[in-house]
User: Fold this.
Amino acid sequence: MNIFGSMYDKTMAWSTHRFAAFWLSFVSFIEAIFFPIPPDVMLIPMSMSKPKSAVKLALYTAIASVLGGMVGYAIGYFATDWVQGIVQQWGYGEHWATAISWFEQWGGLVVFVAGFSPIPYKVFTICAGVMQMAFLPFVVTAFISRAARFLLVAKLAAWGGEKFAAKLRQSIEIIGWAVVVLAVVAYFILK
Assistant:
């Protein structure tokens, strides 16, 4: 089954589309609020196919992510009860309590770590609003961490360039199925 290869080919084709930067920014914006797929899945192929534009693309991604994070912050700040009701309804109360305790213990450092790591950023943007973290430090911390993360991802992808893209294409089926197996195993272990 050549599932991942065809998805990879389609993603690489989309990465050179004339509206690709807009869609990258849009995905980055909504990912900081609710969307489950991180913008890296678009930033990486775009940076590989256009290495000279990698820094510009990373900055678009970071700015859009911070703007989305500001919306997430506002949702948490102005709709705290609604957010906490949804968290409980969806069964994420334990995860939410962990995020709240991290904010109480480490404050703005949590936003920095969440912005740079693959931890779902939206949880922490909304949580920052619920915890009423000071807005300006939130924005500054979010921008520094998101810019650092996306610049690193984009520069690494650009460094690999088209040669890496070709090698990745050769192994994409193995990588794709390995990720599926790991996800299934993780699901049953964490269940």
Observations:
- The chain is about 85% helix and 0% strand.
